[in-house]
Write the structure tokens for this entry.
Amino acid sequence: MACELSNFIEPSRPARLVLRSGLVPRRDPDTVRGPDVSYFSFARPPKIPDDCVEIAPDLIVEILERNESPASASERVRDFIAFGVPLVWLVETTAKTVTVSSGNMRGVEHHDTDTLDGGTVRPGFICPVADLFA
């Protein structure tokens, strides 16, 4: 999966992929989330710190753990969307699906016969869902 996501970055459009960093989507009380993968486009000027981030990434990829409830993952996705993340992919390795959420709380499920795209975050990026599980 990391190989496919690294293709999300292209030399002419610098960006940064961050693995398992802290993200602070809410304050008072503080909420810290640890997205599996965060993608930051350098089209935006802010410096991306190495520790907890208070800047909404352009894309978050979350992987549903085997022992994790879908409700728990859905709560994280809602936090990310409310924080201003324009594109969230929730990867379910057992079902081999990716649920794509953008701009609203309702996601669209993509199966291994479908194709993902980068939407407005990364125009031109296309990846067969099956390739994420190869």
Summary: The mean pLDDT is 78. The chain has one domain: 2-132. Helices lie at 2-6, 70-83, 129-132. Residues 70-83 form the longest helix (14 residues).
